[in-house]
Amino acid sequence: MAASFLTHFPITPINRFLYSHKPKTLIKTLTTLSTSTSPSLITTHEQEITLIDETPLQIPKEKLFIPPETEINPEKGPRILRGSNIVLSKYAKDAQVVSAEFVKSSVETEACPNDGSPEFAFVGRSNVGKSSLVNSIVKRKKLALTSKKPGKTQCINHFRINDSWYLVDLPGYGYASAPNELRKDWNKFTKDYFLNRSTLVSVFLLIDASIPAKKIDLEYASWLGQNQVPMTLIFTKCDKRKKKKNGGKHPEENVQDFQELISEYFEAVPPWIMTSSLTNQGRDEILLHMSQLRNYWLKH
Ligand code: GDP
After folding, report:
1. HEC string of 125-185?
2. What atom in ligand 1 is closest to the CA of residue 206?
3. Closest ligand 1 atom, CA of 128?
4. Which residues contact 262 (CB under 8 A, 6 or more apart)?
5. In the UniProt record, does the keyword Ribosomal protein occur (predicted)?
6. For ligand 1, atom 17, which residue shows the shortest CA distance?
7. Residues with Cβ within 6 A of ligand 1?
8. DSSP strand E in the chain: where?
């Protein structure tokens, strides 16, 4: 069911990927985000969130992620979540984190919680900023309990959010210091989870946008694509804007490069979001994206 998110657009040849560096965004109150089809688009109150990129569309339509059953207003065009290629759908609601609790660490897929709640798995290269992002999403300082020492991280860590869905912290990969054997185990362990976890709605693959694409990340993303595992790319550290002297690129350029490098492995353009744990960029957008994937998944 969730895999159907991957099938909205055919593969298109790599073309110009226009991306607005500094989208002019409007502060919208939540009520103004409501539509007639989804009156309670986001069930938070009073709070003002900048969510929708109201600038003229600069991402070509074939590069957008349009969730199923999304009706696009022909006059106004799609409503795109800021700093992403994700179009807002009628399923976006209940996007606030009210409660978060650690449930369990499992060493294999079969041992994971089996109550059938939908889940999202966070994974990325060691040091990509996963703990910082998970903590910023749940607004707690130390929720991601994983230690950085190889050996202590080989668990699937389930956190229950709002007593209704799971955020899953998976072992980081690519530790320079880990022995080869251990690296292989991590591969097998996480691959088994990706392929067999029926309640997995989407893998959130974290990619450091402050540096050029790494081979291991490209391999990871292409493996997910080839195995039709639904994936969202979460670009981290997007606040690091300083151009390095030796040909370093801005986050937006790295975001573009990464997608071009993996495009052949995906039938449809995967959703992506630019984030920073320092500025909280992308936090609300991740939560909204999760909510619309989750609510669609629950209905089908
Ligand atoms: P993990 O190993 O993937 O869990 O990564 P951490 O969350 O521990 O972060 C690794 C390093 O990157 C730490 O020094 C963080 O302070 C830094 N870091 C994490 N997120 C960001 C971010 O959004 N922006 C910047 N500039 N640094 C970050």
Report:
1. ECCCCHHHHHHHHHCCCCCCCCCCCCCCCCCEEEEEECCCEEEEECCCECCCCCCHHHHHH
2. 3
3. 3
4. 218, 221, 222, 225, 270
5. no
6. 129
7. 124, 126-132, 148, 172, 236-237, 239-240, 276-278
8. 28-29, 48-49, 52-53, 80-81, 100-106, 119-124, 156-161, 165-169, 200-208, 231-236, 272-274
Which of the four pLDDT bands, split at 50, 70 and 90, describes residue 53?
low
Taking the C-alpha atoms of residue 72 and residue 70, their distance in angstroms, rounded to an integer, is 6
Amino acid letter, residue 45: H
- The tens digit of pLDDT for each residue in 127-145 reads 999 999 998 998 875 665 5
Distance CA 206, CA 85 (A): 16
- Cα–Cα distance for residue pair 74/71, rounded to 1 Å: 9
**Among residues of the chain, what percentage have pLDDT more than 70?**
70
In the prediction, which pLDDT does 147 show?
46
pLDDT tens, 109-118? 999 999 999 9
CA angle 154, 158, 160 (to 5 degrees): 165
pTM: 0.81
Q: Which of 127, 206, 281, 286 to mutate to test the pocket of ligand 1 (most atoms within 8 A of CB)?
A: 127
Each residue of 211-233: pLDDT tens digit? 999 999 999 999 999 999 999 99
The residue assigned the tokens 């994700």 is 86
